[in-house]
């Protein structure tokens, strides 16, 4: 286990992690549920946790912490603990050791002392954060995501299979799509679940998706500029129309009469784009007291 931790520490952030971080920066990432037990997500700048603000939810724990097999005490995995693991032994739990020492001083019956192990969740093992993960999943489902991307999993773990199918069904019902990325094609069990399959590495798929996302971002930026110009044109048109109305009002204030107007509306529309408007051609007034 110590060797695995060292390998994890020496690993580098991949294109896949960078893509997930980019999605988070673009506010396009609802959540990333991962089976990985390394800390590459954290090093990529993603927040891993079990609350609503978490970018990443680690369903199988991680190698950065250890926990007691007896009292469930957990702590950071430091070099001294790793060296004991490296020797083939399991470190004693400091909390259990403290409790046992205090009992011995008081002349009480001796109790067992637990050992530390990496804080990872093995297959079919109870997850201490299981309820929190379930709450997040239910919350995410209520937000009705549009896309589900499944990458780099063999689709054999029961809990993972259940999670994928729980998200896939409502996403497809609302017109979204489910994408599967893996080195091997999914079995027939998943034919009705995945809309698309990309055969290859997660990194190569993410490079293509990243490029496409950049293109979409550029299109969105251009559309935003276009919408702003259209809005500006509408405002200018409205201002010109208001200027025409204001000119009419000022005209009748100047002649000090109670007007009855018969206006050529079509002519006003045509000439509203001009800087001046000749009322005499399109309006008739009757002066007098009514």
TrEMBL record:
SUPFAM superfamilies per record: DHS-like NAD/FAD-binding domain
GO terms for cellular component: nucleus
Binding residue positions for Zn(2+): 68, 71, 93, 96
UniProt KW Zinc keyword: yes
Coiled coil: 213-242
Domain spans labelled Deacetylase sirtuin-type: 1-239
Residues annotated as catalytic: 60 (proton acceptor)
Keywords tagged on the record: Coiled coil, Metal-binding, NAD, Transferase, Zinc
GO molecular function: histone deacetylase activity, NAD-dependent; metal ion binding; NAD+ binding
Domain of life, source organism: Eukaryota
InterPro entries documented for this protein: DHS-like_NAD/FAD-binding_dom, NAD-dep_sirtuin_deacylases, Sirtuin, Ssirtuin_cat_dom
Family: Belongs to the sirtuin family. Class I subfamily.
Protein name according to UniProt: Deacetylase sirtuin-type domain-containing protein
């Amino acid at each position: 286990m110590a060797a695995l931790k060292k390998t994890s520490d020496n690993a580098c952030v991949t294109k896949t992690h960078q893509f997930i971080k980019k999605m988070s920066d673009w506010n396009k990432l609802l959540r990333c549920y991962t089976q990985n037990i390394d800390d590459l997500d954290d090093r990529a700048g993603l927040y891993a946790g079990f609350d609503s603000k978490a970018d990443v939810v680690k369903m199988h724990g991680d190698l950065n912490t250890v926990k007691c097999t007896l009292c469930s005490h957990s702590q950071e995995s430091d070099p001294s603990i790793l060296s004991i693991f490296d020797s083939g032994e399991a470190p004693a739990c400091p909390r259990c050791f403290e409790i046992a020492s205090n009992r011995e001083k008081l002349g009480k019956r001796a109790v067992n002392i637990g050992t530390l192990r990496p804080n990872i969740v093995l297959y079919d093992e109870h997850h201490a954060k299981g309820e929190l993960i379930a709450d997040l999943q239910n919350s995410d489902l209520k937000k009705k995501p549009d896309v589900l991307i499944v990458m780099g999993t063999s689709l054999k773990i029961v809990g993972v299979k259940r999670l994928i199918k729980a998200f896939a069904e409502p996403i497809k019902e609302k017109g979204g799509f489910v994408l599967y990325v893996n080195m091997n094609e999914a079995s027939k069990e998943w034919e009705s679940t995945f809309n698309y399959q990309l055969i290859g590495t997660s990194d190569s798929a993410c490079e293509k998706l990243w490029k496409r996302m950049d293109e979409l971002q550029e299109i969105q930026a251009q559309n935003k500029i276009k919408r702003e110009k259209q809005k500006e044109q509408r405002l200018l048109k409205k201002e010109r129309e208001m200027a025409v109305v204001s000119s009419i009002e000022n005209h009748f204030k100047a002649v000090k009469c109670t007007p009855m107007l018969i206006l050529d509306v079509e002519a006003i529309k045509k000439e509203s784009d001009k800087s001046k408007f000749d009322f005499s051609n399109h309006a008739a007034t009757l002066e007098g007291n009514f």
